[in-house]
């Protein structure tokens, strides 16, 4: 399981990097991925991407309800589509991340009970929530 988060990140970002490097179809730019410092990125990949990133592979327990409903999670927030979000949506998503992680509702307990790599310590919750709140505050919105 230690390689799982790295594989998820590679599956999500490598296609974006390939399109960006190759230019993609004329006039089409790859969406910019969410950028975070490595410790925060590790937390996002391990705890958030399995349900909130299109193309992320879900462990076996993700096929059991209610964890089997990641497509609904992706309609709320999809990190693979982050580059397509406007400033207001990014700020709202980051504020929601801060509130839900700080409040303990994310990642959900039914997922972390069996997917231990997704469980966040109190310090990790604080780190992720603080980062999300600071990022949201730094986004200029109209």
In short:
Helix content is 55%, strand content 0%. By secondary structure, the protein is an all-alpha fold.
Task: Describe it.
The protein is mostly helical. The chain has one domain. 55% of the residues lie in helices and 0% in strands.
Count of β-strands? 0
Structural class: mainly alpha
Determine the fraction of residues in helical runs and give it as a percent range. Answer: 40-55%
Uncertain spans, ≥5 residues at pLDDT below 50? 1-31
How much of the sequence lies in strands comes to: under 5%
Q: What would you call the shape?
A: globular
Please compute the radius of gyration using only Cα atoms.
Answer: 15 Å
Mean pLDDT: 76
Number of domains: 1
Biggest sheet record? none
The DSSP helix count reads: 7
Distance between the termini: 43 Å
Order of helices and strands: HHHHHHH
């Amino acid at each position: 399981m230690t390689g799982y988060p790295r594989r998820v990140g590679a599956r999500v970002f490598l296609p974006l990097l390939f399109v960006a490097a190759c230019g993609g179809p004329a006039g089409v730019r790859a969406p910019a991925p969410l950028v975070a410092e490595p410790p925060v990125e590790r937390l996002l990949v391990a705890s958030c991407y399995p349900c909130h990133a299109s193309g992320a592979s879900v462990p076996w327990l993700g096929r059991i309800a209610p964890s089997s409903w990641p497509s609904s999670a992706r309609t709320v927030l999809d990190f693979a589509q982050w580059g397509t979000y406007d400033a207001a949506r990014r700020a709202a998503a980051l504020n929601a991340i801060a509130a839900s992680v700080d409040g303990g509702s994310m990642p959900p307990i039914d997922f972390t009970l069996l997917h231990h790599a997704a469980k966040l310590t109190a310090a990790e919750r604080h780190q992720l929530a603080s980062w999300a709140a600071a990022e949201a505050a730094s986004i200029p919105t109209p």
